[in-house]
Amino acid sequence: FKGGDTCEYLLSSGRFLGEKVWQPHSCMMHKYKNSEAKNCLVDKHVVFIGDSRIRQLFYSFIKLINPQVKEEGIKHGNIPFEDKSASIKVDFLWYPEVNGSMRQRIKSWTEGSVAKPHIIVVGAATWSIKIHNGSNEALAQYKINITSIAPLLEKLAISSDVYWVLQDPVYEDMLSESRKMITNEKIDAYNEAAVRILNSSSRNSKAKVKVFSVSKLIAQETIMKSADGLHLPESSRDTNAMILMNVYCNKIMKPIDGSCCQPQPPLTLIQKIAFCFFTLSIIGYLIISLIHRNNYRKNKSCTDLESGEEKKPAISTPNVSTLEMLLQCFCKLGLIMTYFYLCDRANLFMKENKFYTHSSFFIPIVYILVLGVFYTENTKETKVLNREQTDEWKGWMQLVILIYHISGASTFLPVYMHIRVLVAAYLFQTGYGHFSYFWIKGDFGVYRVCQVLFRLNFLVVVLCIVMDRPYQFYYFVPLVTVWFMIIYATLAVWPQIVQKKANGNCLWHFGLLLKLICLLTCIYFLSYSQGAFEKIFSFWPLSKCFELNGNVYEWWFRWKLDRYVVFHGMLFAFIYLALQKRQMISEGKGDPLFSNRVSNVLLFISIVSFLTYSIWASSCKNKTECNELHPSVSVVQILAFILIRNIPGYVRSVYSSFFAWFGKISLELFICQYHIWLAADTKGILVLIPGYPMFNVLVSTFIFVCVAHEISQITNDLAQIVVPKDNSTLLKRLLCIAGFFSGLHFFSAMQDQSRH
Questions:
Q1: Does the annotation mark 434 as catalytic?
Q2: What is the mean pLDDT of residues 288-308?
Q3: How far apart are CA 738 and CA 719, in angstroms?
Q4: How far apart are CA 468 and CA 168, in angstroms?
Q5: d(CA 357, CA 560)
Q6: 3-state SS, residue 45
Q7: Is the pLDDT of residue 5 over 80?
Q8: Cis ω on the peptide bond leading into residue 541 (within 30° of 0)?
Q9: Which helix (H) or strand (E) holds 257?
């Protein structure tokens, strides 16, 4: 950790990821859209002063505001630009030399009541080298002129953002005869003089002219692609313009994926309360541990001198042990949440942009597949989708999704479509698992509901408090939670139809199918009626849970994307359990699921269907078109996978313990990746060890997996305490939880009021 302002890193250092993606040192750069650039620069006046290279930068900058602009201005003259819709003025002023004329123009902004530009970008030198044939006298005069201009720039820097652009290197072999005197040696001498004078001028001054030196690094990599050896290729000057936009706009617009130049957000009231709570928990746990240790020493087994019998230590009361477990859980959770905050809210660790290459995605996939196959064991039972198999399924899917996120593979459409199937498969398992439980057990009690809701939502609620994010931000948990409640409501509403009842009368099966048809009708209606959907979830208190950026559109989009797959999971569970009850499938160890002929036919159809979906996904033209078809066709590949995995008896009888281990903590892995493996709320990559990308990934991954595993254990321990089986105690706990959320809502309202 070097400290300092990330703006300095953005302006002075970085590297290329691939050929065109620029990665600043230690922070992330946001790619501004036209609308964002206009919102940032509304009512602003920007001035570029200098030679033809600055003119290039000027054009790239205004194209961020209006991409339709053409480079048709006078080459050796001033060029104005105005966007009347946002009241933005951007001017280029032709001053190819640092001389008296440039000084007079800059001085005019420092005098009287003349309106000062909000952003001033200055730079020139190559003309001085060219006109004076690279003489030492010209360099000396350049130093004198900058020395006279520097105080004026410092004065302007008090109220405006002033940038001095250093001269880019040239590609000497391509220079025309009239420019041969412009050598990189001369350019370095001019740059050195400018930096020394500007730095000495601002040494004792709070205001500072910012030296834009990063363009030199960019030019070193790309100047050989120049058309004339002097001017940068378009992609390089566009990068410079985007850096300039990030330097000025990030602190105004605060983009999630633009960590450069963004100050650390202040602690909110709720975060401060959470910090106090975790601190007290840690102190409380330490005190209780010390008391117990002292009691243990006093009550340690020893021989009674009179009777000669061994005394047994006193047994602690259950209340104390429960309290100790509670404090221990919150103590560990407090330390873990501190790590979360330091990783993704404090400007302590570096963050970098993602950059996708095929090798960065597919090579890790091969690694984990080899590991998964290596750790193969026999299953305890050989039923379709048995516990070990579903854990394995969740595990390898989660690992693939993690690799997808860290590699930035969402930019590659075929991979994106297959990952969408994996997310749908999670929801399919939600429908399958919960339907099977309610159908077989017939347990619609409050305890079961509270246990599931607590395990799903505990970590997300804590992160919403600590990381100051809305509930809908962690979209997958709201999605699974809502679908669980829909499944519960569908089966719990009168008449409650369960397997035991249906076995007595086959008509109950038709009753259940009728319920499922009603559910499908409701899903279909809501998916094509955005207005009705938004009205339902815009009512308080649902709006507090499902709004993101002031509306529920994101929630509607996420729900709609996989709207049918939970229904498909429920229907599959119903058909499978009905076939199992009637002994129409064989689930013995090593036995095929059906007769050999039927099994072979189904296996062939499944493989063809699986490959057909992959071919279709690979031929998709755009995300919008593919997302429209995805809800209806994703089930094809899911069912194909289930049949391929379960029809052959020898395949059904084994599982990967490696994948199954990850499957048991898949939810924690999915949520924790947001802040302690990725960064900037999944937009970037966390860098604990700069300069060593592979080593950094290994270390951050190890910590990330350990934390996810620990949180899983904490959640399970707390679930036993917070959600007891006794109904009267459970009711009291629910009242306490209702009070907690009421308090949270009260403090949240106070926060919102103070922000406005």
A1: no
A2: 66
A3: 16
A4: 42
A5: 30
A6: strand
A7: no
A8: yes
A9: none
Choosing from 101, 176, 228, 632, the catalytic residue is: 228
Exactly one of 45, 231, 434, 630 is catalytic; which is it? 231
Buried b (16+ CB within 10 A) or exposed e, 261-294: bbeeeeebebbeebbeebeebbebbeebeeeeee
- Give the pairing of strands 45-50 and 14-17: unpaired
**228 is an active site residue:** yes
In degrees rounded to 5, what are phi and psi of residue 490? -60, -45
Q: Which pLDDT value is given to residue 291?
A: 87
Between CA 42 and CA 414 the distance in angstroms is 39
User: Which tokens sit at 500?
Assistant: 């035991």
Give the H or E element holding residue 484: helix 476-492
- Check pLDDT > 60 for residue 3: no
Concerning whether 13 is annotated as a catalytic residue, the answer is no
What is the arithmetic mean of pLDDT over 84-98? 95
Helix ranges restricted to H, 357-445: 358-374, 387-407, 413-441
Write a three-state SS string for 215-255. HHHHHHHHHHHCCCCCCCCHHHHHHHHHHHHHHHHHHHHCC
Cα–Cα distance list, 72 to 49, 81, 84 (Å): 18, 12, 20
Cis peptide before 495 (omega within 30 of 0): yes
Q: In the 8-state DSSP scheme, what is residue 46? A: E
Give the bridge partners for 353, in sequence order. 684
Residue 449, classed as helix, strand or coil, is helix
pLDDT digits (tens, 9 = 90+) for 368-421: 999 999 999 999 999 999 999 999 999 999 999 999 999 999 999 999 999 999
DSSP letter, residue 551: B
pLDDT at 574 > cutoff 90: yes
Strands 88-94 and 161-165, sheet pairing: unpaired
Q: What is the pTM of this model?
A: 0.91
As a whole number of angstroms, the distance between CA 357 and CA 363 comes to 10
- CA-CA distances (angstroms) from residue 293 to 286, 311, 315, 695? 10, 18, 13, 40
Cα separation, 446 vs 151, whole angstroms = 73
Q: Is 493 helix (H, G, I), strand (E, B) or coil?
A: coil
CA distance 648 to 589: 10
CA 747 to CA 753: how far, in whole Å? 10
Integer angstrom CA distances of residue 243 from 31, 255, 447, 480, 735: 9, 14, 55, 40, 52
Q: 160 with 116: CB under 8 angstroms?
A: yes
**Burial bucket for residue 111 (CB in 10 Å: 0-12, 13-18, 19+):** exposed
721-732, pLDDT tens digit by residue?
999 999 999 999
Task: For residue 405, give the nearest of 27, 671, 25, 26 by alpha carbon.
Answer: 671
The DSSP-derived string for 318-336 is: HHHHHHHHHHHHHHHHHHH
Number of Cβ atoms within 10 Å of the Cβ of 182:
22
Closest-CA residue to 237 (of 223, 254, 224): 223
Candidates 52, 235, 289, 360; catalytic one: 52
Q: Where are the alpha helices (DSSP H) in 94-233?
A: 100-110, 126-131, 136-157, 184-201, 214-222
The tokens for 80 are 């104005």
| Helices and strands counted in the chain (H then E) | 29, 13
Where helices occur in 493-619 by DSSP H, the ranges are 499-504, 507-527, 530-538, 542-546, 553-561, 565-581, 596-618
Q: Which strands form 350-353's sheet, in the order they lie side by side?
A: 350-353, 684-687, 678-679
Dihedral class, residue 43 (left if φ above 0, else alpha if ψ from -120 to 50, else beta): left
430-439 pLDDT per residue, tens: 999 999 999 9
**Contact status, residue 398 vs residue 670, Cβ threshold 8 Å:** yes
| Spatial CB neighbours of 673, under 8 Å, sequence gap ≥ 6 | 402, 405, 682, 704
- Contact status, residue 126 vs residue 182, Cβ threshold 8 Å: yes
